[in-house]
Amino acid sequence: SGILAYNDTYYWRLMVWDDNNTASSWVAGSSFTTPKHAYPTVNFKAVPANPSVSEAVQLSDLTTGGATIVSWFWNITDATHQDGTNANTQNPKVKFTSAGTKPIVLIATDVDGYQCSNLDNPSSLKSLKIMLPLPNWKES
After folding, report:
1. What is the DSSP letter of 7?
2. pLDDT per position in the chain (140 positions), as tens?
3. Contact 58/94 with Cβ under 8 angstroms?
4. Distance CA 41, CA 126 (A)
5. Rounded to whole angstroms, how far apart are CA atoms 71 and 108?
6. Cβ–Cβ < 8 Å for 15, 25
7. By the 8 A CB rule, do 130 and 53 touch?
8. Which residues contact 133 (CB under 8 A, 6 or more apart)?
9. For residue 134, what is the DSSP state?
10. CB 72, CB 44: distance < 8 Å
11. Left if phi > 0, otherwise alpha if psi is -120 to 50, otherwise beta: which for 87?
């Protein structure tokens, strides 16, 4: 069907024909084995989706595929981790220290060591637009 199966070994060989339809002899290539399973597909969400500077943001891992995910690494520009979370927490909470568009990179690794990030697929690269905080005001 034109689709290779996971965790399978494939062998190949090649024969070519010239302009006179004379065939070469077969040339055998080396074998190759496909990965055990699909690689993870990284995805996540942020709540709130449009936070302000110093507002707590909950990041939630939505990674699918692969085997069981066993490690996470978040690379987040201009953010500090909150509530005991860190760059290796599955669902960290962060506060951004400055306004602007901040890229967020998540790298997920499964139990078999297969690793993917949202940098591997441009359509899954995400950024958050961090807004300036609203000014404090007091009614008098």
Report:
1. T
2. 679 999 999 999 999 999 999 999 999 999 999 999 999 999 999 999 999 999 999 999 999 988 999 999 999 999 999 999 999 999 999 999 999 999 999 999 999 999 999 887 666 668 889 998 777 777 87
3. no
4. 14
5. 6
6. yes
7. yes
8. 52, 53, 54, 55
9. P
10. no
11. alpha
The structure tokens listed for 111 are 């139990």
Residue appearing with tokens 């009614």: 139
Q: What does DSSP assign to residue 63?
A: -
Tokens 């995910």: give the residue.
Answer: 69
Residues 6+ apart with CB under 8 A from 19: none
DSSP string across 67-104: S-EEEEEEEETTEEEETT--TT-SS-EEEESS-EEEEE
Residue with tokens 């707590």: 56
Q: Please state the length of the chain.
A: 140
Dihedral sign of CA atoms 43, 45, 50, 51 in order? negative
Assign 126 to helix, strand or coil: strand
Question: Do residues 23 and 47 touch, judged by C-beta distance below 8 A?
Answer: no
- Whether 51 and 58 have beta carbons less than 8 Å apart is answered as no
* Maximum C-alpha span of the chain: 97
